[in-house]
Model the fold of this input.
Amino acid sequence: MLKKVYLIVLLCTMFYGVNAQELGVRFGDALGSNSAAVDAVFGLGEFSRIHADVSFGNGVGVEALWDFLYKPLGGEAFYWYVGAGPSLFLGDPFLLGVSGEIGIEYHFNGVPLALGADWRPTFVIIEDTDFRTGGFGLNLRWVFNK
Done:
């Protein structure tokens, strides 16, 4: 019971710190299946965020990556990021692994849109052990609170 209380307090504290959010789509390779995904970004501060996807292709994929932002790339609107986090694919076969991410992103000035491209290599641990280097994607998100 005490572990559940700690988990609830941790989740509430984490979501309290979430500020600017983005929501959109990601097109590309997700754990070996070409798919479209609901793409969301939850800011955790000035230099980090959670980049989460739910993809639909030959199954359902879920990824939640913790990204670190690096902004000094040609102005305030253009920057790059790296991150890592868990990946899950509910389909045939079932896959569980860890994905890395590196990408670039541009936030349009005066329009609340973000356009990005990323690469997500994945080390699959469960159903088979494999390293997948596909994972290229294109993101288009609406930026809230801008």
Summary: The chain is about 10% helix and 60% strand. The longest strand covers residues 78-90.
